[in-house]
Amino acid sequence: MKKYVNVFDYAKEIMQALPKGVLLTTKADGKVNTMTIGWGTLGIEWAKPVFITFVREHRFTRSQLDTSGEFTVNIPLGEFNKKILGYCGTHSGKDTDKIADLDLTLEDGEKVAAPAIRELPLTLECKVIYKQKQELSALPPEIQRQSYPQDVDSSYCGSNKDIHIAYYGEIVNAYIVE
Fold this sequence. Notes:
Number of strands: 10
Shape: globular
Low-confidence stretches: none
Strand content: 35-45%
Oligomer: single chain
Structural class: alpha+beta
């Protein structure tokens, strides 16, 4: 069962959870994938409610987003198993099925193909309406050094050489999975 909500009534909960980690879930070519994110923005763009997420260019999730153009954001409310965020932030969906590995409970999306995850019940269903690769040279040098060091191998999970792509997702549905 789903309790439909106005996303901005939960802005405080979303923004407090984000730096600690929330899940970004995609579905493309029959495969559901979820990853932990700690960066994002909730707001209004082009008179539409949006959630902007940032995904590194060589992540499996990026290919899922580019294929489907849809995602859900899954936010914890209250107590939950924090190992979910740790696992989903350190394993690639290219190599493993994180949903099966963690025995997560999926709830079908209503307006997008990507599902909700019962264990992180506050769900935003989003459709990508714009994307933009971040321009490294436009960032201050300290952010470049901290977030995008170029002297690392970017082929493994957890590497941080790759620049982010900002995906602007129009929030087309918001609810709490009960």
